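User: Could you go from structure to sequence for me? I need the amino acid at each position, not a summary. Structure tokens:
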């Protein structure tokens, strides 16, 4: 299963998602017999890459925020 495809976080994958949509539009039988497996694999790879980039950014933001909070607590401890 994949997350919602058309969101602001997945802008880099629009081309491969459009290819998957076109493949799905060819009909149920084509999709059910594995005709769209390659397109689906490409979408999964792209979404994974987007997610890894997003989590790396979030991790860096959290690290900076944690350091800021620790420095504030250190100042409070030194003053008391």
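Assistant: Here is the amino acid at each position, in order:
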């Amino acid at each position: 299963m994949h997350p919602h495809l058309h969101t602001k976080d997945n802008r880099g994958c629009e081309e491969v998602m459009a290819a998957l949509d076109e493949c799905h539009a060819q009909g149920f039988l084509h999709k059910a017999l594995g005709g769209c497996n390659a397109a689906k694999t490409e979408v999964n790879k792209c979404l994974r890459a987007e997610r890894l980039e997003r989590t790396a950014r979030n991790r860096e933001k959290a690290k900076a925020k944690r350091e800021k909070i620790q420095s504030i607590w250190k100042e409070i401890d030194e003053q008391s």
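One structural detail worth keeping in mind: Residues 69 and 75 are 10 Å apart (CA to CA).
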